[in-house]
Amino acid sequence: MTSSEITIEPATAEDHPRLRVIQRDVLAEPTPDLLAAAVDGTAAASPSTGTRNATDADIVDGAGLALVAQVDRPARSDDPVGYVLVLTAGDVAYVPELAVASAWQRQGVGTELIEGACERATADGATEIRLTVRAADGGARAFYRERGFELLEELPDHYEAGAGTGLLLGRPL
């Protein structure tokens, strides 16, 4: 698939149900509240404190963004096939989630989403973009390495489920 057949644009509230399905289907530890905050502009209160966490507040205050990918072939569907969440604080942007529907993986959608995130982060003043992957996920590590990301730090016990070690990756913008 060529990049001209993939459209990257800001997510809307109407995208949320489809993005939630993608999130549940492909992410080992999805964050539904973060997705809702990025797409709908709402932040859920913490069950224990009744307050929003800083990440959600940052999104609502305009430092975060959800981008969606739509495919233009055979005929454009309004259903997103993937999304990326981007948080920008100062000169560093962070991608807490990037997800592509299983049927659309390995067709350039993830590449277009990460490049869209980099463009948006640059426009927001970031000079570096970071993300975290599971150390055990060789496919994700290779995907990001091929797109210029390098290991910044190993994060033991970063993930709750399964293989807990995370790798913080970064790339200059």
* Number of individual domains: 2
Class by SSE composition:
alpha+beta
Percentage beta strand: 25-35%
- CATH superfamily membership of the largest domain, which one? Gcn5-related N-acetyltransferase (GNAT)
| Element-by-element helix/strand order | EHHHEEEHEHEE
Unreliably modeled segments: 43-62
Q: Biggest sheet: strands side by side, in what order?
A: 1-2-3-4-5-7-6
Distance between the termini: 25 Å
CATH architecture of the largest domain: 3-Layer(aba) Sandwich
The DSSP helix count reads 5
> Rg to the nearest angstrom?
15 Å
Mean pLDDT: 83
Features:
Aminopeptidase; seven-stranded mixed β-sheet; single chain; globular; 5 helices; alpha+beta; 173 residues
What does this structure look like?
This protein has 173 residues and is of the alpha+beta class. The protein has two domains: 3-117, Gcn5-related N-acetyltransferase (GNAT) (Aminopeptidase, 3-Layer(aba) Sandwich); 127-173. The chain contains five helices and seven strands. Strands 1-2-3-4-5-7-6 form a seven-stranded mixed sheet, with helices on both faces. Strand 3 and strand 4 (92-100) form a beta hairpin. Helix 1 (16-26) packs antiparallel against helix 2 and helix 2 (32-40) runs parallel beside helix 3. The two termini are 25 Å apart. Mean pLDDT is 83; it is low at 43-62.
